Amino acid sequence: MADKTTTRPQISPVAQQIATELGETMPGAAKQIAVIVRLLGEERALAILAQAKDVEVQGGMLIPDGSRRHTFGGVFFRLVREQATPEQRATMFLPKTKRKPKRPPTAPAVTPPAAA
């Protein structure tokens, strides 16, 4: 009888190191980091990680609307996006039309007034 357990594909030690340092625990993020390491090379991916650390030390990076800071992982992915060629970006990141829609913020619960 065949073993029905599924195992996740292994990622390179460098990709695992980057994911760990960024605090990325989701399999999708680790897989995306593995693709980045494969396309850009280990040395360049580690250099971008070092740049992300520098950005964090200097106060972080705001998201485009300026409302909050990127997470450490978000800084890394933003720097990768900025430094990759269009062809590399097309392989590393889904086009906006193929991404899952972001959930709208949830409204705070409103309790109805008590009956008089």
Structural notes for this entry:
With 116 residues, the protein is mainly alpha-helical. It has a single domain (13-94), classed as PHAX RNA-binding domain (Arc Repressor Mutant, subunit A, Orthogonal Bundle). Helices cover 51% and strands 0% of the residues. Helix 1 (13-22) crosses helix 2, helix 1 packs parallel to helix 3 (42-57) and helix 2 (27-40) crosses helix 3 (42-57). The longest helix has 16 residues, at 42-57. The chain is elongated. The termini are far apart. The model is unreliable at 1-8 (pLDDT under 50).
Topology overview:
Blueprint (H helix, E strand, L loop, with lengths): L12 H10 L4 H14 L1 H16 L14 H12 L2 H7 L24
Quick one: biggest sheet? none
Number of helix segments? 5
- Alpha carbon gap, first and last residue: 69 Å
Based on CA atoms alone, the radius of gyration comes out at: 19 Å
What do we call the CATH topology? Arc Repressor Mutant, subunit A
Write a concise keyword list for the protein shown above:
51% helix; 116 residues; mainly alpha; elongated; Arc Repressor Mutant, subunit A
In short:
The chain is built from five helices and no strands.
